[in-house]
Design goal:
mainly alpha; two-stranded antiparallel ribbon; elongated
C-alpha cells in the first residue's frame, strides 16, 4: 500500500509539472483604477487555488471548534456518569445515617 501511495504521488507530480510546462504563457489581470498584474498563467491559477482552499478552511474552522467543544463536554459527562455508576455498587455506597 505504501508503494501505491508513492506511485500515486509521483503520477500527480508529473501531471502537475506537465500542466505547468504547457501553461507558461503570460497573462495580465486588470484591476480597478488601472492597476494590472502580469505573470504566467500557472502562477495565477495556483494563487487563486490556494486562496480558495484557505477561505474554505477558515469557513469550516468555527464548526470544527464547536464540535470539539461538544465532544469534550460529552466525554466529561460520560466520565462522571461512569464514576457514579461504579459507586452504585452496594459495597461502595457511603453509610447513610438512620
Amino acid at each position: 500500500m505504501r508503494y501505491f501511495n508513492w506511485v500515486w504521488r509521483l503520477a500527480v507530480f508529473f501531471l502537475l509539472v506537465g500542466f505547468t510546462v504547457k501553461n507558461d504563457q503570460p497573462v495580465t489581470l486588470q484591476y480597478f483604477l488601472g492597476l494590472a498584474w502580469q505573470t504566467s498563467l500557472v502562477v495565477v491559477l495556483l494563487t487563486f487555488f490556494a486562496l480558495g482552499a484557505a477561505i474554505g478552511v477558515l469557513a469550516m474552522l468555527g464548526v470544527v471548534l464547536q464540535q470539539r467543544r461538544l465532544i469534550a463536554r460529552l466525554e466529561r459527562e460520560m466520565r462522571i456518569k461512569n464514576k457514579l455508576s461504579n459507586l452504585e455498587d452496594p459495597s461502595q455506597l457511603p453509610i447513610q445515617p438512620s
